[in-house]
Amino acid sequence: xxxxxxxxxxxxxxxxxxxxxxxxxxxxxxxxxxxxxxxxxxxxxxxxxxxxxxxxxxxxxxxxxxxxxxxxxxxxxxxxxxxxxxxxxxxxxxxxxxxxxxxxxxxxxxxxxxxxxxxxxxxxxxxxxxxxxxxxxxxxxxxxxxxxxxxxxxxxxxxxxxxxxxxxxxxxxxxxxxxxxxxxxxxxxxxxxxxxxxxxxxxxxxxxxxxxxxxxxxxxxxxxxxxxxxxxxxxxxxxxxxxxxxxxxxxxxxxxxxxxxxxxxxxxxxxxxxxxxxxxxxxxxxxxxxxxxxxxxxxxxxxxxxxxxxxxxxxxxxxxxxxxxxxxxxxxxxxxxxxxxxxxxxxxxxxxxxxxxxxxxxxxxxxxxxxxxxxxxxxxxxxxxxxxxxxxxxxxxxxxxxxxxxxxxxxxxxxxxxxxxxxxxxxxxxxxxxxxxxxxxxxxxxxxxxxxxxxxxxxxxxxxxxxxxxxxxxx
Length: 475
Prior knowledge:
The protein has helices spanning 6-13, 24-37, 50-57, 61-73, 122-132, 148-160, 176-187, 202-210, 227-237, 258-267, 325-334, 344-355, 359-382, 406-415, 444-464, and strands at residues 77-80, 84-87, 109-110, 170-173, 193-198, 214-219, 241-244, 274-278, 302-307, 319-322, 396-400, 418-419, 421-422, 435-439. It has 475 residues and is α/β, with parallel strands linked by helices.
């Protein structure tokens, strides 16, 4: 059972006495409740004793006691003999993340998927692949490691970016998600733990759960990673895999700084644990490229995942793993129970896309910059009370609403033919109920229609939840 460090909790609380109105114990309770609902204080986390908290915050123990009592009465804390006081959720909060709900309804406006239509170069790449295909037809067509041309192309991509890579350090997979699932199957297992960010990519959470592993999470700060907490968790956690998205993090859009990347890399030298870096958004920078590599050689425990689905087209189900040769060999042996390789035709097409260099990606970035600008203007127009950080890359923005009612809002939207994703879907532990992810990679008409519905949903649901137990304090 993990206990939050008192100084970390103090950092999360910030200038809590200036938030809201009413007695100070009410303000403290309200701020702690917000941290629980937002997922910053994980479910089942032991908080400091009343005396510790009072000393750290510089307030009376009576004030802290009153605040914690209020949270216990409203179901956000519970005291257990021998375990202290733990964070929890009241009965009216469903702590489980909302699952993926595929829809084939033609009337449904889907703002749950962050992707673009095909790059203008995809058609020519497939034409090139058809012309090149006869070279491969005499063979058996299986490619457990991937075709040599593509492995060399991906290796060249990393080498040009500053990380010396050989084709033998590349395994071609059926997309990034398939690669991560293969890592979990090969090096995870029932009862083993995987460390993740919170919030994080929801299908990565699903993959961890379905592999039988336990997911642990370190909450992100509002504008960055919590470097101290993350490095401490890596040092002491004993997780078999640490999974992070350092480049235009999904869903927040944050980019990890070079100093933290270097410190993390150092933690995985000479260990049997793995740091899996999901780099599927790395090429979709809009303002400036993210930091890439802390050195020309990776530690043996670092595995990098990439794909072309976000950069070029989701219909090209081609991804890869970049890792130590021994790791690549182990993964290739393990994949036989899943598949014996991926489409040769699509692999040849991706070789052509790599040969084009940045030409196609520059066009994508230009398109996304215009989309981002329009989406931000529409959010300010229809949801002026919501806040967001302007993303510097990727395909999404992370919206924060004034009230923690994201799941109720998304349920209302679904009944009214709009599919959006609430923050809880990106959570390992639950919570994140003040957040919603919005892809800005959609047409202006779709975004305008979707945000109009979202504004109506928030207004409708917000009115109905007056007097709800979650509203025991000012927002």
